[in-house]
Amino acid sequence: MSAEEFVEYEEGLDWLHGLLRFGARPGLERMNWVLEEFNHPERRLAFIHVAGTNGKGSTCAFLTQMLMEANYSVGTFTSPYMVDFRERIRYNGSMISQEDLLTLMNEVKVLVDRCEKETSFGSLTEFEVITIIAILYFARVVRPAVVVWETGLGGRLDSTNVVSPIVSVITNVGMDHTQVLGNSLEEIAREKAGIIKPGVPVVTGERRPEVLAVLQDKAKQTRSTLYQIGNHFDAQQVAEQLGEQQLRYKSIHRREPSSYRLTMNGMHQTDNAAVALMTIDVLRNYFSYLLEEEEIVRGLQQTRWPGRLEIVSPRPMVVLDGAHNQEGIAALTGSLKQLLPAGTRLHLLFAGLGDKPLTGMAKALDPLKDQIEALHVTSFDFPRAADAQTLYEAFRTGGWEDEYLDTVPDWRAFLLSWMQEKQSAKADDWLVICGSLYFIAQVRAFFPTTVEEAGE
């Protein structure tokens, strides 16, 4: 064993997190150099590559569960994580083991050091290293039949964009990460369209003509078939209550519409499920994937994705949602309008990152003004987190009066007192916690483990 090898898992993790100082550095030259040294293990895997501003994680979860129900072995790569870093790399729903992750970190570290010394590319970033580790784990250790592969940021220059998928998926395009991806929907769409590869079919849940024009243009250049929601496939929500919804799905690949039940709420999940279903239709029709209708039904019904309108306490009612940009908050607002029982007093606990459109997010909550009792803004332990005063000002600029707003110096103390105070409260008090996935991850760890995860 080399003197520099990590012996403990935590040592390796500290090294990996230490690479965060290199930030996000778009470009594929470091990835390609390392993969070349490893003799391109990614070429031995079948990928479904998923990009999009919102809904990537949920779409990946739907795809993974449906394929697993049909007895396909599935690798899944997603970000960020909620509680444990290893959630990002899963095989058949189970996280990569600490032992496998440690072995691969030691192996990759050698090449990270070499890349820094031997090339002009500099050091790999944390996300690039975890992407390489995921490829090695899937190609060498577990060898799944298919990998559901989520982009980190954008598409064209994202470190996941070193694979040739069998299907590309672009859930939607929104105004997020504008400092990296561009200041208009069209510019951001061009970055997302970078995952479209020659001859590879593309499925999108995007409906806006100006965005579709960009995706169509790219698909035409690469001679890829583009399947669009509202045109080649669609889904309508038929009924919804807290904890479930029914939808009807139709596609050009099916003679009759089909009915499905989801345990995830929101019209945006109806669209995400439709995108996942169309991707399955493409796999069945063009790649001979075998999924029976009852396996698809079970897969959709059993899909859970933490931090998306997730109830972590039924009494008092506490709901977590990872909405972290303007479109996400608008989707959350629409869902709450539909789901809140009459007479509910709604309280929001909000924390967000300083580089997000905070005033726009505040404005997106406006349709809930009649139901919101109080907006509690707070900060949390994360490098890019906005402080509570910044959030307070953003909400004021976004049209919220002082009487709605209050700053919370310590969100944990706030939650403790809320849980104790409201334990015996009637069901008309709801606390919804939102604003950042990173914040939601920390809040989630505050609550007892949910039943679904008890076995992990």
UniProtKB/TrEMBL annotation:
It comes from the Bacteria. The keyword Repressor does not apply. GO terms for cellular component: cytoplasm. Keywords: ATP-binding, Folate biosynthesis, Ligase, Magnesium, Metal-binding, Nucleotide-binding. Residues 307-436 form the Mur ligase C-terminal domain. Residues 50-278 form the Mur ligase central domain. Its EC number is 6.3.2.12, 6.3.2.17. GO terms for molecular function: ATP binding; dihydrofolate synthase activity; metal ion binding; tetrahydrofolylpolyglutamate synthase activity. Pathway: Cofactor biosynthesis; tetrahydrofolate biosynthesis; 7,8-dihydrofolate from 2-amino-4-hydroxy-6-hydroxymethyl-7,8-dihydropteridine diphosphate and 4-aminobenzoate: step 2/2; Cofactor biosynthesis; tetrahydrofolylpolyglutamate biosynthesis. Its cofactor is Mg(2+). Signal peptide: none annotated. InterPro entries: Folylpolyglutamate_synth, Mur-like_cat_sf, Mur_ligase_C, Mur_ligase_C_dom_sf, Mur_ligase_cen. It catalyses: (6S)-5,6,7,8-tetrahydrofolyl-(gamma-L-Glu)(n) + L-glutamate + ATP = (6S)-5,6,7,8-tetrahydrofolyl-(gamma-L-Glu)(n+1) + ADP + phosphate + H(+); 7,8-dihydropteroate + L-glutamate + ATP = 7,8-dihydrofolate + ADP + phosphate + H(+). The keyword Cell division does not apply. One of its GO terms (biological process) is folic acid biosynthetic process. It is an enzyme of class 6 (ligase). Belongs to the folylpolyglutamate synthase family. NCBIfam families: folC. Monomer. This is Dihydrofolate synthase/folylpolyglutamate synthase. It comes from Brevibacillus invocatus.
